[in-house]
Amino acid sequence: MDAQEYAIEVTDLKIRYKCLNRISIRKSLFSMKKSEIDVFEAVKGVSFAVPRGEIMGIVGKNGSGKSTMLRAIAGIFSADEGTIDLHGHTVSLLSIGVGFQKKLTGRENIFLSGMLLGFSEQQILEKMDDIIEFSELGRFVDKPVRTYSSGMYSKLAFSITAILETEIMLIDEVLSVGDVRFKKKSYAKMKELITNEDRTVIIVSHSTETLEKLCDSILWLHEGKIKMQGSTAEVLPLYNDYMS
Amino acid sequence: MDRFISDVKKYQKYTIYAAKSELKSEVANSHLSWLWWILDPMLFMIVYTFVALTVFQKSEPYLPVFIFIGYNSWNFFSACLRQSVKLVAANKAIVSKVYIPKFILIFVKIISNGFKMFVAFSLVVIMMIGYRVPVDWKAVLLLPLFVVLLVVTFAFSCILLHYGVYVEDLANVVTVVLKLLFYLTGIFFSIYKRVPYPYSSLLLKCNPMALIVDSMRQVLIYQSMPDWGPVIVWFIIGVVLSVVGVHTIYKHENSYVKVM
What is the dihedral of CA B190, B194, B198, B201, to 10 degrees? Predict the structure, then answer.
């Protein structure tokens, strides 16, 4: 395949966590031994390429490095070795837990998150009403985020990322938030976004049902290495067997 | 350094919007809040005037204005530095979800603290009019002095931001050091007059805040030229430290999230 058709190219990626026992001046002044540095390699040399417009699912047991790898692709972590090439596409990460400033209102957070994702104020203003409507927040959008329930947090996070559409979307186990009605809505919205030919999506999920319905191909990550990569029909049954 | 300039431009709107929102949220939470930006310096000014006049019995011409200039600049400097130490951890929610150059967080603090200093300085202007402090054209030199203050503050904030991620009790150390520095900055007394030589000139050269505060007073109250030599030296030190700080942040910022 022509290199131009790939949206994401990952080559020999290695990501390590240095579990630095955070240095305390008081302790290091008084103790003689050096603070130990534990190195944990979360991603151990992974290479793959995702063609533009493809929807790839990532599965693997907990601790296999899925979220770490997504964060590296989103630019939040740096790779210790290897490269990640996004070919200039904009990327956003949607994950559990929210990147909001608690003291600020929902509306202000929409602006701030949008600007951090690379959108201009004008673009965000245009989509503002859509976001508020999708999140079902109503007048709460002008109240501080610390007054929200956890369901409201997640709905707002989802709405912002779903409506401010980036060229690559990374979804980290978040298709299952909210009540039944919101789940259906978010699933439908995801489908709509995903079927856009130009958008590349990577979904991390433990729900094989969702992956079966949405994904073209699956990457099985096991303890930091690729165990298997292929079409959904090939990989999912084997993964299911392994996990049961 | 081009990366720095392009990042600053790219996140410009974000920085301003974030600073505005922060100021707004402070005001929204309490009844007195924005008034406090004026009350706080005023109350301290009264206390220090009392201490200087009654306890130490050492006066200065236009003592309240004298104190005010020092206190406002000091507040800006110490607030920015104190907040920078834990800045990455305080913004954990954003930093772990999306990429943002970490010194942008410093800029947000500088703008919001700077705004508060600006509000407090407008009080200085009012007081100067009230006390009929004689002023000449040299008051305009306040602007380059503000620039030096900004650069020095940014430089130290960058370095503290970086080390604050890895060193746990840096916050305590910084609090103590800032307290010490406060007394060595001559906010409610004049270093020239009260500190014996050679300590006075040592202090005025080595403590950037003492130098800046004194220069501001020279220009505003005494209508004389500040000692430009040390000011320029500190400006250069500030620029160099800023470059080092920004470079360090760029190099290590993607590992900050891993430590938290």
Answer: 0
- Which residues constitute the domain of residue B56? 2-259
The domain segmentation of chain A, as residue ranges, is 3-89+167-243, 97-165
Contact B14/A at CB under 8 A = yes
In eight-state DSSP terms, residue A23 is B
**Which numeric CATH code is attached to A3-89+167-243?**
3.40.50.300
d(CA A49, CA A202): 11
Indicate the number of domains in chain B: 1
Rounded CA-CA distance B57/B69 in Å is 20
ipTM over 0.85: no
Could you say which residues of chain B have pLDDT below 70? 260
Backbone angles phi, psi at B165, to 5 degrees: -75, -35
What is the per-residue pLDDT across A163-191, written as a single tens digit (0 to 9) for each?
A: 877 788 888 876 666 678 877 887 788 77
Closest CA to B220 of B101, B90, B81, B73: B73
Domains A3-89+167-243 and A97-165 in one fold: no
Do residue B168 and residue A24 have CB atoms under 8 angstroms apart? yes
Class of domain A97-165: mainly alpha
Cα distances (Å, whole numbers) of residue A98 to A31, A81, A94, A205, B235? 39, 29, 9, 18, 40
- Whether residues B93 and A99 touch (CB distance < 8 A) is answered with yes
